Each structure stands twice: as structure tokens, then as C-alpha cells.
Amino acid sequence: MRVDPADPVGSGRDGHVLLLHHSEADRRASVARWVRRGLAHGEKVLYTQRAEKPDGWLLEILDEYGVDVHAATADGQLSILPLAEFYPPGGQTELVHRALLEGYRAVRLSAESDAALSFLSADRYRQLEEAMEEICRSLPVSAMCQYDTRTTVGHRFLDAVTSHPQSVITGQMYLRRHPDGVELHGELDLASNEALLLTLRHATDHSAAAGSLRVSLRGLSFIDVAGCRALLLGTEPFREAGGQLRLESAQAQVGRVLRVLGVDRQRGVTLEE
To answer: Is pTM, for the whole model, over 0.85?
Structure first.
């Protein structure tokens, strides 16, 4: 089973989502399903892109995925905004409130990081990412921030993951943080291991007082050596300090791989199937 980035866990609000895409085809599919989901739920969808990109780019993709783009744009539910309107001087809270005043139950925003950085300074963009985390917690807002893994490297990759601590989509993996720990869905392999490692480091930094980190594997259908290594390396400092990693509800095939590779025998790891 492969994860559907549009609806990986059946949640009506996706929150502040990091999309780390590995190809243009990967991005197109994820964005189309995510936008389609918002339209189906009666949400206002606001999108922006580089000025040089054809205006019909998103509409063509949505049409391929069976979305009635004429209806969505005609009634204003879907709007493709210039960068200057998508990033108003007063911040995106202003943009969100305007959309909510139109009567929509929720608002969905999406932009490419490269497009944003063609308009904003790196520092300003980082500030907006931090502000968006709070907006998504306090208002009925979901934001998908698109980062190309081919250009998001080094400190940019670290900044991207740490500024989106709650939800990450990359490759065939969907990761969601919640108060009790972390949920993993889809497939965990080489394409997603770096994002998982950094997210687990961030999660354990904030779980030290609890003494344990619970990782639900219920929705995970595949894991390989790279994925197992990410689970262990991402929690290693936490476990070395006495913390406990609890791997819960693993599907049979995933549990088998974890046992064969000895993950369950590592210090501070408990496998609960």
C-alpha cells in the first residue's frame, strides 16, 4: 500500500506540511491531490508560483486529476495569486482572515520555496515559516510548503525539517507528530530516511522530560535498512541518555524486518506489535 499524500490519515486539517519532493512528477502529483482534497472539503485554496510560470500550470494538473477547475476558479474557491499578494506586508494572517471572512470553513495555502525566495529574503522567509506554524495551530489553516530535495541541501534541508515539526511528506512516507509521539505512514526507505532522522532528533529534543518516545508504525507498510538506520540514529542521543524508543503496532512484514535487522535488540528500543 502506498500513502496518498492528499489524505494519508483521514484528517480534515493537515496543518503545516512540508513536502520534500524528489522530482517534478512527484511534486505535481502531491500538490494536485492536496489541492483537490481542500476543494472537496469546501476550503478556500490559495496558491502562488514564480511569475514566469504559465498561469494555467496548476489548472492543467488539477484537470488531469479530475477537478472541475472552471467551477473552482469561477466561484473563487481556488485562486492563484501573484507573489506580492500571497506574501502581503502585514503577514499571511491577514490573507487568511480575508479568506475566512468570505465564509469558507478553512483555508489552504501552498507555495514553492524557490518561488518564495525569488520574492523574499531568506531571513524573511524563515520568519514567515515560523509564523505559519503558529497560524496553523490557532486557525483553521493548512499550508503545504514545497521544497525540491535537489536544491534543498545542507542547512536549507535542516531549516526546512525543523521549521515543519508536525508533518512531513517525502517519497512514499508521511510523518505526523502528535502529543504522544510520532506516526509513520506509507513506505520508509532511502528517499525518506534523512527527513525522518532529523524529525526524530527534533522530537526527542522535545520529549526528553517524558523519558520515552512512542512511534506508531500502524500505517507503515514497508521499511528497509536505510529506514531502520534512520530510526536508530535519529533517537540515538535520546536513548544514550536513558530515553526509551517504543515502536508500536507494526504490521507483520515491518515487524519482521525490524527483528531480522536487530532493531528491537538495540539499547532503549521496545518493539510492541
So the answer is: yes
